[in-house]
């Protein structure tokens, strides 16, 4: 499936459920999925691999991870 075919499918799905296709696209879905995985698991490395990034800094910027997120994850982890 080409990128364009996928984009057309997304447009059809979004329109089909009554949303504005202008507000949703393939990239926003990709970013949302990565954000959900990160929030549920806290596993930045897994998200890096899924996104195809080579540097953790790129993934951090992409997800908008901030110091507060990092501290929350740290506090939930016991050693």
Count of runs of 4 or more consecutive helical residues: 5
- Biggest sheet, in brief? none
| Strands, total number | 0
Per the principal axes of the C-alpha atoms, what is the gross shape?
elongated
Brief rundown of the structure:
The protein is mostly helical. The protein has helices at 3-16, 26-41, 44-51, 56-63, 67-76.
3D structure, described in words:
The protein has 79 residues and is mostly helical. It has one domain. The protein has helices spanning 3-16, 26-41, 44-51, 56-63, 67-76. Helix 2 (26-41) packs antiparallel against helix 3 and helix 3 (44-51) crosses helix 4. The protein is elongated.
Key traits:
mainly alpha, single chain, 79 residues
What's the arrangement of secondary structure elements?
Blueprint: H1 3-16, H2 26-41, H3 44-51, H4 56-63, H5 67-76
Helix pairs in contact: 2-3, 3-4
């Amino acid at each position: 499936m080409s990128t364009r075919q996928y984009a057309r499918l997304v447009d059809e799905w979004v329109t089909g459920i009554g949303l504005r296709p202008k507000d949703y696209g393939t990239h926003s879905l990709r970013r949302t999925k990565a954000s959900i995985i990160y929030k549920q698991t806290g596993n930045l490395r897994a998200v890096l691999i899924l996104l195809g990034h080579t540097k953790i800094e790129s993934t951090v910027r992409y997800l908008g991870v901030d110091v507060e997120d990092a501290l929350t994850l740290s506090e939930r982890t016991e050693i």
